[in-house]
């Protein structure tokens, strides 16, 4: 990674959001830019306190903080941040069981992905960049249905039941963490035309002033017809934010221009240029999305800058 | 525990020695004095890197440092010493498998028991009191045979094979740790008469000057015929040590006098007086040994004194 890196401990990115919010898909692009040998991925689902059958027996849901070893998650993220290895617990999503732990060595970048990463102050303090992934709810339900049936051995009815079971805890514990994020990323279907494949989702980034965001001036348009625009707005809580909208149907030429700008803003990482925006569509086929690619690149921008000591803490 | 305790972090006792050296039996008495709610037990076998079948496949034995997560053991002991909980790995001795980890909360006293606790400098630095348990080898083999067949599902032939497999690593990695102990405890059968039950084993404590040992003057005898004597000697490495010999056939009256003295030296713990020296003999029956009781009490003396800040580090 950047040869002139000045921060000699791992840089920690949080990707927090509800189940099937798109966290792993965002993470994949970031890993492909920075290089798989430079990024360690920590999934906080591994810190579930109970197996699936125990959760049912005890009547607790996965997003309930009491159903997770959050103090141990915090301890482990702190240790990784200090450059130390951890013995990471393992939750098997397919079988719903807790398995033998595995050694996880720190790498220059660490992505912590999960439901409750910003639940406590001590946890939040572990991160260099905090992202909350908050897609359109109907979209998330669709993603969850596809993923849990294909990869986690659930039936459609079981996913529906799981969504019902978790709804209250999601609302009570996951959603309130949105307020602690430096960036809120929201994918939503275009309003004007159907997007069965998911390649033309609009991406909206709320940019909070807790991080120095890149100067996007050169590519921003006044009118906003070309798919990439920044506007001042009030967040749902009334607080001021910059809203960056990336249209799902942004022209390839235009997307390329924004990509070029972002790469030019992190010349330290320019040699890492990698294909971005790739995802598996709901038919199980590989696909590509400009708004996803640009989102991945924007998040990586912050990691590279953090490694360069641009927002020293 | 002592109401006037001045050290507000857990006090850590190491009980290191080969498999079936008698570590757990010593620990049991200490736990019964200090109270099970005040002592956490950490068995370093839980930090095995491989399952039994993996060890066979890879051709490594349990006492091989490379077959253990010693860096994680060190990290966990340090965390406990700081009063922090850990998510402890679990090795199932019966099945020879690694299982889901469990939460271990620190307690005022922590006993770390296992094969390789003093293998690295950083590990050794975690302990307040370091004991090496080094019984007569024939006795250890007998104990291992009895324990592994009764509690760990091995056949006699399997235990013999396991002893052979481990012999070289035991010699290379376990025995050299003896030199780092503050106290070396050695149980051996009496020379003059058979001791089938194990209730009359002699106990020899090498007392190194790395800890302030109790003043046993009042009960020591010049002649040494009454079962409890202290003598200056050279250790196997030529270095000077105090050698405390507790005869297996010490008279009950005499053992009681020594016990009384030791309890009087730790008045802070006097209200904790508990039945000591209990063990399960090789016929599976509960039995009692004076030399074991006095050994347990001597080790506890050091823990109580450490909690009172008597050897501030």
UniProtKB/TrEMBL annotation, chains A, B:
Catalyzed reactions per annotation: D-ribulose 5-phosphate + ATP = D-ribulose 1,5-bisphosphate + ADP + H(+)
GO terms, biological process: reductive pentose-phosphate cycle
InterPro entries: P-loop_NTPase, PRK, PRK/URK
Keyword ATP-binding: yes
Keywords assigned by UniProt, alphabetized: ATP-binding, Calvin cycle, Kinase, Nucleotide-binding, Photosynthesis, Transferase
Molecular functions (GO terms): ATP binding; phosphoribulokinase activity
Top-tier EC class: transferase
Superkingdom of source: Bacteria
Pathway: Carbohydrate biosynthesis; Calvin cycle
Statement: the UniProt record of this protein carries the keyword Nucleotide-binding: yes
Domain Phosphoribulokinase/uridine kinase per the UniProt entry, residue ranges: 12-188
EC identifiers of the protein: 2.7.1.19
Family per similarity comment: Belongs to the phosphoribulokinase family.
Protein name per Swiss-Prot or TrEMBL: phosphoribulokinase
Organism, as annotated: Magnetospirillum moscoviense
Lineage: Bacteria, Pseudomonadati, Pseudomonadota, Alphaproteobacteria, Rhodospirillales
């Amino acid at each position: 990674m950047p040869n002139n890196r000045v921060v000699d401990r791992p840089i920690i990115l949080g990707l927090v959001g509800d189940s099937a919010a798109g966290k792993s898909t965002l993470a994949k692009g970031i890993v492909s830019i920075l290089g798989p040998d430079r990024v360690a991925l920590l999934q906080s689902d591994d810190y579930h306190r109970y197996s699936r059958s125990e959760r049912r027996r005890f009547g607790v849901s996965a997003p309930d903080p009491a159903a997770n070893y959050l103090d141990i998650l915090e301890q482990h993220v702190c240790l990784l941040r200090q450059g130390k290895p951890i013995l990471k617990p393992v939750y098997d999503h397919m079988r719903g069981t807790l398995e033998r732990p595995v050694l996880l060595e720190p790498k220059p970048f660490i992505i912590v992905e999960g439901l409750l990463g910003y639940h406590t102050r001590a946890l939040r303090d572990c991160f260099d960049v905090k992202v909350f992934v908050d897609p359109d709810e109907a979209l998330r339900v669709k993603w969850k249905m596809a993923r849990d049936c294909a990869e986690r051995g659930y039936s459609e009815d079981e996913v529906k039941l799981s969504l019902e079971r978790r709804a209250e805890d999601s609302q009570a514990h996951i959603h309130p963490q949105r307020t602690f994020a430096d960036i809120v990323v929201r994918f939503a279907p275009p309003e004007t035309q159907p997007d069965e494949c998911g390649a033309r989702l609009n991406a909206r980034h709320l940019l909070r002033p807790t991080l120095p965001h890149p100067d996007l001036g050169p590519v921003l348009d006044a009118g906003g017809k070309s798919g990439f625009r920044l506007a001042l707005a009030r967040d749902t809580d009334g607080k001021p934010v910059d809203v960056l909208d990336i249209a799902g149907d942004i022209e390839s030429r235009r997307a390329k221009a924004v990509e070029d700008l972002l790469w030019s803003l992190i010349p330290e990482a320019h040699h890492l240029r990698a294909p971005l925006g790739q995802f598996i569509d709901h038919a199980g086929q590989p696909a590509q999305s400009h708004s996803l690619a640009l989102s991945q690149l924007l998040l990586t921008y912050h990691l590279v800058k953090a490694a360069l000591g641009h927002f020293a803490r």
